[in-house]
Amino acid sequence: MKEFNDAMTMPDRIEKTANGSILQHGKLNNRIYLMKLAVQDTESIIPRMNQLADMQNYSKIFCKIPSSAYPLFLAEGYRMEGYIPAFYNGKEDAFFVSKFPNDQGRASVPVPRLQQLHRLLSDMATGNQQAIDKASYTIRKLGQRDIPAMTRIYSDIFKSYPFPIYDPEYISEMMDEHVQYFGAFKDGKLAALSSSEIDREAQNAEMTDFATHTSHMGNKLSMLLLRHMEHEMRQQGICTLYTIARLQSVPMNKTFIRTGFTYSGTLLNNTNIDGKTESMNLYYKRLGKI
């Protein structure tokens, strides 16, 4: 119970440099995540992260960077775990690179899960659009008045999460900034939800924070929400969609494959979710012309 309470009340910190780079780090995920790299920080950010990892004994440093910055990271021992083509403004690729500073982070590769993923990718045709019975559900954008219902579902579904989505203040702040939340309703009650985390400057959006109330599972609501968000992002001029999905969640991987997303890498031992550290799969989908 104490570990659960610690995870729920002590989320990782998000810090912004003077130039605009964004770092997330803390003991929940036991890692540093370079979420955004400002051009001015390209040469200085690596020693800064190395120092922070040494001080806190983090097990992994994980970075999302423009491809042009990769030679510097490669020289410092980082290796690519995934990529998204034309990620930045429909032009420059994004590389997802990582480094394990100590033996603590070098857990064994999840071979059975990766073999399962191979079979899944081999058996399913990308872009296979499945029919969904959506007559009994309505989809709409969520607002401040929906936050209590949102946090109840998130708290019920996840024992831990890489971001404090169970905190009403966090959800409210994200709504006011760059995250749009969407919900599936039945009989006026929230049944499932998800979010689009938008980077308008780079014209991309992360499809994330999917959760379905236990009483509504099995109705393909994640797929219904994903298609709705894709339509919304297209209308808003977003060029690229992507997600970081749990390797062990077959339903979520199927959802993205069936809606035309392309698998492009696995992030090993990367994210604390639902009470344990898991490997994550990277998927992307182009909406605009390259």
Automatic annotation (TrEMBL):
EC number: 2.3.1.-
Sample GO molecular function, one term: N-acetyltransferase activity
InterPro entries linked to this entry: Acyl_CoA_acyltransferase, GNAT_AblB, GNAT_dom
Annotated keywords: Acyltransferase, Transferase
Domain N-acetyltransferase span(s) in chain numbering: 137-288
Membrane-traversing stretches: none
Enzyme class, UniProt record, top EC level: transferase
Listed PROSITE patterns: GNAT (PS51186)
Pfam name, any one: Acetyltransf_1
Signal peptide: none
The protein's name: Beta-lysine acetyltransferase
Species name: Proteiniphilum saccharofermentans
Taxonomic placement: Bacteria, Pseudomonadati, Bacteroidota, Bacteroidia, Bacteroidales
